[in-house]
């Protein structure tokens, strides 16, 4: 069969080129916070924590009409507008410093609001509530443990202060430390010691350390009679446990507790202070712990 000329060859089938996909334009996502919201409580993002004034206690002024203001205080403290809550917390501080008799009937509710506000992620609201706690301690002291003022509210407040004193935000941490110091300075050491002892064995080592510092400050205010009422054995055992803690603040608090106990127990002794202390430690602690406690003062 004669060969077909090349010019008459059938065309080689070609695969049609696939159309290229059009590249998608990256459209900016609209943040939910950028959309207009029909909410009178919505605060624009431009309103930063800097809009809140942190007023020192000595710069606070009395409320012009405290009887009228107290009627709406609790409702305003429960507002969804965080700036309004901050302003109400500053009013709480004014009530505590200048009109404490009007605040006392609702003190338990106010303390619960302060504890709740400390959980808020807004630093301004958190710090203002901590500052309010300091003024509450100064004004009411041991009355916070009165059953009529809801002592359970105090437990919630104490835990939040220990948590905030343990966190990494420095200005919140420092304010919480001030509040804890105000608490110790304003309250009788023995009932406060009963509250704090729970937290020196807390699973969170930072909370444990902060509680240990407050506990040691309480012990420094106690005489031997109050120590005996609390329990000398329980107190020295707490110090021995804290001496082996992972954080240096807890260990330093343990040394302070031991030193205060040594000075109180040997106050009447003139020449046999170390012997009295050694005998006491050996009677209350295992040998290795007793030796550690003895070395602190020897």
From TrEMBL:
Lineage: Eukaryota, Viridiplantae, Streptophyta, Embryophyta, Tracheophyta
GO biological process: microtubule cytoskeleton organization
Domain annotation TOG: ranges: 59-291
Record-given protein name: TOG array regulator of axonemal microtubules protein 1
UniProt-annotated stretches for the region Disordered: 1-42
Gene Ontology cellular-component terms listed: cytoplasmic microtubule
GO molecular function: microtubule binding
